[in-house]
Amino acid sequence: MTAPAVTAIILAGGRGQRMGEVDKGLQVLRGKPLVSWVVDSIAPQVDEVLISANRNLERYRELGFAVLPDAMPDFPGPLAGLHRALENAKHPLWLSVPCDTPFLPPDLVQRLRDGLLSGDAELAVAASGGRLQRVICLGYSHLRAGLGDFIARGGRRVGEWQDGLRAIAVSFEDELIFRNINTPEELSEAENKLDY
Question: Coiled-coil ranges per the record (predicted)?
């Protein structure tokens, strides 16, 4: 049986508060923007890539993919970006990943999809070190309607939305693969470490 096709949604629409209000996805690590690290890892694993962004839209478009700003004002959070992107997703499955996780593994989609299908779930969430990586998840496109209802009721927290779904955790042993870069200090530390 052919595996269901996947649309990747790279979430780059946040304020970047801990990074000093700069656009995190465009901060440079080892010569290329963080979002480019994510694209290089994820694009070969999926059938379509969409980018959720609210600033520097032309810079993101230079990556060669559709760039979709939130339909709601004032940076309402990753769920708003996900909901907007799902309007445009062409495939039955979607993957969401943040733009600040430059070390994602080459088997991320395969393992999440395997977990989703074998676990008869609606959503597969990555986990490492006993902790769910809530924004790194793979689910079915039909979840968009319920997500819209959740947002309309004032819901903003990713975990709260996921807790209302038939979700399964998929564990990865290496915690470094989900390391995200939130601050200038973390960016500098990642720049200077050679073991990633």
Answer: none
